[in-house]
């Protein structure tokens, strides 16, 4: 048990944390982008206003995740992003388009606004699909062939559904009135898609990857792992119960517990992520490279670790502060 | 020239980083200018300063968004385009990049929301503090990136073991020989970029009939900032050149177009460096001036390219340098003439129409000079990626030519579209603000 053993483990954990925070945070704002075409003009402005103060910082977690892979596991960074060259390109194009559309739509000439709205939604869709495809390709160890690619595309659709659910639940929490009522409807539709996605990934991953199957379906791990699928099922059941009730109460102007669907969705993401992390660890490129083979020299990892330990608590604190400043229902944004 | 994978990878990385640098070079200084506007407002209580803040913070938000998305792109391309880079110098580049993300990138993005939209929700003090932190984060970001880039130019504080660089002294790594010069040069370049952007867009608003005090304040700030920074930049640029002569003489020889070591070298104003004949065609120069500038002695000796086994492509470096200096001279003349026109608090509203048009033309002069300067220093480092340690060719990846060509074309199309949209939205915002200011004045007159 020496530094060369522990440091890569710690960095795998930090990288996982960055990716998880990214999926939750950018997940809801990508989801809001996906849902944008469904709203009327006033609703669109309000939706964008609800994510306005956050999206820049949310995307920074992706830079941290990709950055940690680069600096802590440089051998894996080249292999992973080399194999994912095209989906990464599409994701970046999507993120670029939606990021700039977000700012251009309020500043451009009025006749151009519908175009920027469309670019915002399309960019969000492209980024969500591409991230799902990246996950799908990664889980099959970049296997070639029709079936692995089909699987990757399905994961793409599934992740988009999950992001839409996150986005809808975010809007339930952050808005009121007609938009909130519509968001409850969107959430009810996307729950099914997200559940299907989780089911698909959990069911197919062990099938396409025997090593992962062996990690799950053996005693006594199976019993220790059972809380993961059971908890996920329970949270989905909770969604199915609370969303209709929330819709009824919201109609008479009472939106108590409007935060519950979002919390439940975050819970689902946490459990799913934990399941994936358990499946993959300690590999970093499935079937090819583990974290110790891919890691940087301990001397570099130590330096980064000290910085991370010092700075991450501050980042978490001021991120929480920013969310608290914009707590409650979103109002229209003005630069003043 | 044959388009091999290396050339394509360099073109792609060059396109990405050129596009990216446009926006940090605005944001670094614009954040401080916004803080200045905010502090002036708090000090004087004049709404004009807050109006200036309100207009320019929109441009900051837009530039920041473009900087973020193009920065995300960069973080994916280090590994895909240059796998050999991290393998060889990962112990140095890794921590520096990680510190940039952890200490700076998060700081600016974290407080941006409060700076842009938080004023109705937080106290004036917290809002000012958020603006300060965003400005500080932007500059800190520049600090780490310039430290890494300078280390690649003039590496120090490390030893090579088994083909990998190992740090022996972090202070020497960070504060390597060219770092203080490059950092100051870049921060001043950002200040000048923003000064001319301020002056140019405000002049445009004035031409469109905007006589508001907020716009006048921004115009004056821009012209005076430029007049203040340009002489500093020339001094720092000269010091940076001397530093280059000491640590990267081959780059300096390319800048001056000195093929063979010579004494009393002329300062070439125009020439077509010819790599085949190792001479300059159609050279026009001022005798002894290059030796005078670099050695501070008319008979000083400048080492020529013939003394280096490997040297950068001469024409690109030679011409990029002349573009940078040429734009710098235009900046000097413009800024000092403008500042003289605005002397002793003469109102900006009385500026001559021709000067205003000229300022509009110079709006993006900072971009041209900054890009040209980066081409000098980056192409001037070739064929090395890390001087004396790793060549660019050694670091290149295995991505297939067609894939890189496809992604390069995608990026180029995207960036061209975005740049067009950015510039036109900037002028659209200026025009809209001018229209509103004009309407407000008319309303006041009607009411009176």
Give an overview of the whole structure:
With 336 residues, chain A is mostly helical. Chain A has one domain. Chain A contains 14 helices and two strands. Chain A has helices spanning 3-35, 41-51, 55-72, 74-83, 85-107, 113-139, 146-174, 177-208, 210-216, 221-225, 227-251, 260-280, 291-294, 298-325, and strands at residues 283-285, 289-290. In chain A, helix 1 (3-35) packs across helix 7 and helix 8 (177-208) crosses helix 9. The longest helix of chain A has 33 residues, at 3-35. Chain A is globular. With 448 residues, chain B is mainly alpha-helical. Chain B has one domain (5-246, 310-447). Chain B has 14 helices and eight strands. A two-stranded antiparallel sheet of chain B has the order 1-2. In chain B, strands 3-6 form a two-stranded antiparallel ribbon. The longest helix of chain B is centred in the last third of the chain and has 47 residues, at 401-447. The model of chain B has no long low-confidence stretch (mean pLDDT 87). Chains A and B meet through helix 3, helix 4, helix 5 and helix 14 of A and helix 2, helix 3, strand 2 and helix 14 of B.
Features:
heterodimer; A: 336 residues; mainly alpha; two-stranded antiparallel ribbon; 2 strands; 1% strand; B: 448 residues; two-stranded antiparallel sheet; 14 helices; 8 strands; 7% strand; globular; transmembrane helix (chain A); membrane (chain A)
Distance between the termini of chain B: 70 Å
Give the N-terminus to C-terminus distance of chain A in angstroms.
Answer: 55 Å
Give the beta-strand count of chain A: 2
- How much strand content do the residues of chain A show? under 5%
Please give the radius of gyration of chain A in angstroms. Answer: 20 Å
Task: Detail the poorly predicted runs of chain A.
Answer: none
Strand order of the largest sheet of chain A: 1-2
Largest sheet of chain A: 2 strands, antiparallel
- The Cα radius of gyration of chain B reads 23 Å
Q: How are helices and strands ordered from N to C of chain A?
A: HHHHHHHHHHHHEEHH
Number of domains of chain B: 1
Number of domains of chain A: 1
Would you list the SSEs of chain B in sequence order as H and E? Answer: HHHHEEHHHHEEEHEHHHEEHH
Q: What class, by secondary structure content of chain A? A: mainly alpha
Major interchain interface with per-chain residue totals: A-B, 61 and 67 residues
CA-based shape of chain B: globular
User: Could you tell me the mean pLDDT of chain B?
Assistant: 87
